[in-house]
Automatic annotation (TrEMBL):
GO biological process, one term: response to heat
GO MF terms, alphabetically ordered: unfolded protein binding
InterPro entries associated with the record: A-crystallin/Hsp20_dom (IPR002068), Alpha-crystallin/sHSP_animal (IPR001436), HSP20-like_chaperone (IPR008978)
Protein name in UniProt: SHSP domain-containing protein
Amino acid sequence: MSIAVGHDEGTKWDWPFQKGDGVVKVLDYEDHFEVGLEAHNFQPNEIDVKNIGEFLEIHMAHTTKDDKFGSITRSITRCYRLPKGTDPSTIKSSLDGSGILHITGNKKK
């Protein structure tokens, strides 16, 4: 008799700028959560991260940029449900030198 093997895929967020399948895994631990989103085309002043109730809103936009091929404008807004138990007052975000937007938050005790 075979026994099914369970697998917890965890929470995943769709993120259009993510390489591969456009999905990023949220690391949801007992005391905190963390996620890293690709944001290579944006500067810190072009990124806005807000907590709206039990949701996290991420907005990125930059003005039109010209290159040898023409002009380009990028803009994205996504809302995600925060992992259960997250204390909204502890949410932090930072953009590293590799263009990854790191978002973390502690869980309520």
